[in-house]
């Protein structure tokens, strides 16, 4: 548990000025008054839904504070869930039991696989290597188009799960000859304590840590995480707060802050933008997004435009037309971003890496088959331009 800082003091002070402490759902909606007309699908707290006692896979939260005695305020992500004893968080995996905030998923993954690192997607970090990948249930968002909603929108006991504590994750990753451990599939931030402890051990064992995330995390826990990260892929779901609220159930600014923090800490990261027809397929918005990336982060971070597939609550939308993805790739490169990819479309030229100096193809990707003959160390074999990334 953390000591309260000034910002939290002001926040909790504002709560105390309310008639009574409202549940978090009403805070979410009351602070969005400037956009009251926008449909807002952000999640709400599950009242009186916590187990009565903690269980085998419980771990006290590391970023929270108490208000009014036994209420907890989680400080891990911008949702800042306020829980009374017996309540469960927006992300479904954190509960207030007798005035303490607990994660329920420490050592309790529901998905474990060995994936090619390209699947994350990470194209400029140790290409062609296997990533031992884990997830628990839970997510801070409510994306209408979620690809993994069966686990992201589930409570821990509602899915098949297993036991794998941090030491076992690292041992299993080494046994599988993985080069990295990816915290992925659902939302890694909500299993922060499990991820952090695993990541520290992994780093000590020579493995890289990959954070695959919606980027919805507060600066303090993110700064601590940066110390153990090898790379990250963060979704920039839209360059519009309105779309974040109505498509994802989040807000834009904290995600932009996440990119700035990763950049400041010199963590290698790549950006994924899923192009959802009718929501995020807007040329002007993409142009603005590229402008922000260039002015704030520079031209070198890889940007992936991914194809939407009909899923979950948007199962009646068509897949993104290939022509839209091609147009966005061209637009982003014309704006000045050097490495722009197209995801989920086999045989598209946007799967490959081309030197930003001479334009020659350096890495060819066919599915998860990689030919990196155009690279010489971290340089273009032809013109010797240094290619941004980690290429061992
Ligand atoms: S991590 Fe979960 S409990 Fe904490 S603020 Fe975010 S949604 Fe709420």
CATH architecture of the largest domain: Alpha-Beta Barrel
Give the domain tally.
3
Tell me the distance between the termini.
39 Å
Give the proportion of residues in helices. 25-40%
What are the SSEs and their pairings?
Layout: H1 6-17, H2 24-30, E1 59-60, E2 64-67, E3 71-74, E4 82-83, E5 94-97, E6 100-103, E7 111-116, E8 130-135, H3 149-152, H4 166-175, E9 180-183, H5 192-204, E10 208-213, H6 219-226, E11 231-235, H7 241-248, H8 253-264, E12 268-275, H9 283-296, E13 303-307, H10 322-335, E14 340-343, E15 353-354, E16 361-366, E17 369-371, E18 375-376, E19 379-380
Parallel strand pairs: 8-9, 9-10, 10-11, 11-12, 12-13, 13-14
Antiparallel strand pairs: 1-6, 2-3, 3-4, 5-6, 7-8, 15-16, 16-17, 18-19
Helix pairs in contact: 4-5, 6-8, 9-10
Would you write up a description of this structure?
- There is one protein chain.
- With about 400 residues, the protein is of the alpha/beta class.
- It has 3 domains: about 5-105, no CATH class; about 110-350, Alpha-Beta Barrel (TIM Barrel), CATH 3.20.20; about 350-390, no CATH class.
- About 25% of the residues lie in helices and about 20% in strands.
- The protein has helices spanning about 5-15, 25-30, 150, 165-175, 190-205, 220-225, 240-250, 255-265, 285-295, 320-335; strands spanning about 60, 65, 70-75, 80-85, 95, 100-105, 110-115, 130-135, 180-185, 210-215, 230-235, 270-275, 305, 340-345, 355, 360-365, 370, 375, 380.
- It is globular.
- Iron/sulfur cluster (SF4) binds near residues 76, 79 and 90.
- Iron/sulfur cluster (SF4) binds near residues 74, 76, 77, 89 and 90.
